[in-house]
Amino acid sequence: MATPFVHRNLPRLLLQARESVMAHTRPSLREHGLSDQQWRVLRVLGEQGTVETGKVAREAYILGPSLTGVLARMERDGLVKRERDPADQRRTVVQATAKGRRLVEKLSHVIEAHYGWMEKSLGKQKLTELYGLLDKVIQLEQP
Asked: pLDDT tens-digit profile of 89-100?
């Protein structure tokens, strides 16, 4: 006998919403040779500058071992530069190169245009409410 679920499958709905949003973004990312993960890294670096790799992993939602491979490919492609943290040689920091920053600048226009379309379609208040609800859900699950 099936379990009588009362609530809709929230994780599935959130994944569907993510895929719906990314469907507009992915073609531009692929056009520039970027994976979703690489874009998340560039977005973090574009917003925060030089960042310790552990923080990049947390902010971009990429597991540490996967991030190592992602950063290696991005470094090979000239998008990021890694170096030892001058304040703590045990740590590594990463920053976008000039090429990486130009890519963030170029893609930000496409992505912001999509967010503008979403705001127009949903209404500014509804989009603001959505951001607020998502922030509250995230906070509910914080330890």
From this structure: 888 999 999 999
